């Protein structure tokens, strides 16, 4: 299993979760855990996903998700789990 962390932040609007989850499902990326909050109209979501079954390059996944974010007015960032863990240990 290869894990990645996806964060989504921006002004709340209808369909954010649907758009992100649709992209993930279309590319065989499984959601392992998800947390979301809305604070004063601002949406924040963090997902842990399994990218082990996808045939797409990780860099392409990240770029595609950034594009999805731009289309719906949010910022989407994607990191491999080991990079995320290393950054937060410092």
Question: How does this structure look, described?
Answer:
The chain has 90 residues and is α+β, with helices and mostly antiparallel strands. The chain contains three helices and four strands. It has helices at 16-26, 58-72, 81-87; strands spanning 3-11, 30-39, 42-50, 74-80. Helix 1 (16-26) packs antiparallel against helix 2 (58-72). The mean pLDDT is 93.
Entry keywords:
37% helix, 90 residues, four-stranded antiparallel sheet, 4 strands, alpha+beta
Summary?
The protein is α+β, with helices and mostly antiparallel strands and 90 residues long. It is 37% helix and 39% strand. A four-stranded antiparallel sheet has the order 2-3-1-4.
- Give the overall silhouette: globular
Strand content: 35-45%
Task: Indicate the percent of residues in helices.
Answer: 25-40%
The number of E-state strands comes to 4
